[in-house]
Amino acid sequence: MDVVDGGVDRGQNPNHRTTMERDSEDKIAEPSWFSPKRLLFVFCVVNLINYIDRGAIASNGVNGSRGSCTSGGTCSAGSGIQGDFNLSNFQDGVLSSAFMVGLLVASPIFASVAKSVNPFRLIGIGLSIWTLAVIGCGLSFDFWSITFCRMFVGVGEASFVSLAAPFIDDNAPQAQKSAWLAMFYMCIPTGYALGYVYGGLVGSVLPWRAAFWGEAILMLPFAVLGFVIKPLHLKGFAPDDKGKPRADTLNVLPTGYGFSAVLKDLKLLLVDKVYVTNILGYIAYNFVLGAYSYWGPKAGYNIYKMENADLIFGGVTVICGIVGTLSGGFVLDFMDATISNAFKLLSVSTLIGGLFCFVAFCFKSMYAFLAFFAVGELLVFATQGPVNFIVLHCVKPSLRPLAMAMSTVSIHIFGDVPSSPLVGVLQDYVNNWRVTSLVLTFVLFPAAAIWSIGIFLNSVDRYNEDSETDAVTRESAVAPLLEEA
Questions:
Q1: pLDDT tens digits for 151-187?
Q2: What's the rounded Cα separation, in Å, for the pair 450 and 40?
Q3: CB 212 within 8 A of CB 81
Q4: DSSP 3-state assignment of 14?
Q5: Model pLDDT for residues 183-192, shown as the tens digit of each residue
Q6: Which residues pair with 75 in a beta bridge?
Q7: Where are the alpha helices (DSSP H) in 172-308?
Q8: What CA–CA distance (Å, rounded) separates 91 from 147?
Q9: Are 481 and 171 within 8 A, CB to CB?
């Protein structure tokens, strides 16, 4: 006899299932040891290693300097990459940003392929490419070979950039989503600083090539982990290792996903007023921070005659980056993590932070400058958690990787990539670092204004939206995809 549930013959209606059965089927079997906190820890360490590489290649110990000769004919040998390959300053600048080519090209590709291949496996593939690429950097023999390898470092990073944040967002406790994202993005300034130190230490005792090989050793276990661990399910994507959809098809997209489908998804992002407003503010914000990171020490040295300007600016940025980023995430969770509240926090912290930074450059005293600039950076860095919370929650789950990828592409192409040369052109024209710094800092005010527009937009948290027409409230009715061990 067929079992009857609620008066319905389930033998004749195979699609009928109890709530308990649906909840049970919606949970993916997990590795026994891989809890959400361990997932966050792994992704934070990988992000840290990635930005250690960014800092190391810019450090004096790895990057080095060209050989030089005096007018009297006395010559000194160069050091590091620039000395070994006799790079011009232009070539050295190209080398530092070469990774962006691979990152910008591969990010949308990884995001779209995640429609049919388990995203956790894609991260494993990306980290493997990254590991091989940094090994190649250590084996390079001229400018073009190391530039080619740096491009593939960006390709490897692309999978992680697109997919890590959605995984963290899926598995973070409901009341701590923004705080967990802030912990992840805190690794950016921390990694840069550790990279400067790491590159300097390695370069002082070993050939510069050893720094890249050391990074490969650090990353290798995490690349292997992406293949050997049981694949994790990302909300909105195929959960198994072969890309086959589950039987219930909940939150799983068909494997057929071509170029036209990518264009369709891009169109959905471009017509989303909340997403576009958030990214426009993020571009203006990143325009300032990118130029700060490149020109800040030089501006500080010329305006205030700072000794050890690199160390001072680096130290202030690291401390403010860590404290500010974490604070922004925790404050948003305390306020109640909604898209509207995130826009409020973005606009207020950027406006006040911009005011402090602007006033800082007006002081003639170096100590007054450092005090005001530190407060300003603290507030400005508080945006990292909220801005990425909006990116992840203003779109359907299936669009999150592409949304993260296009966010990364946009803030680099229109933000920090053009800002440094444009600020250089401005400085060549006015020949006054104080004026140049004030003009640059002023761009934070349009960023705050753009984000303030988002407060008044009709925003819906679409984290639980499973179809084109099925929007639900922000309170999650689905258990985390990983359970605490």
A1: 999 999 888 888 888 888 888 888 888 888 888 988 8
A2: 31
A3: no
A4: coil
A5: 898 888 888 7
A6: 69
A7: 177-205, 209-228, 259-270, 273-304
A8: 9
A9: yes
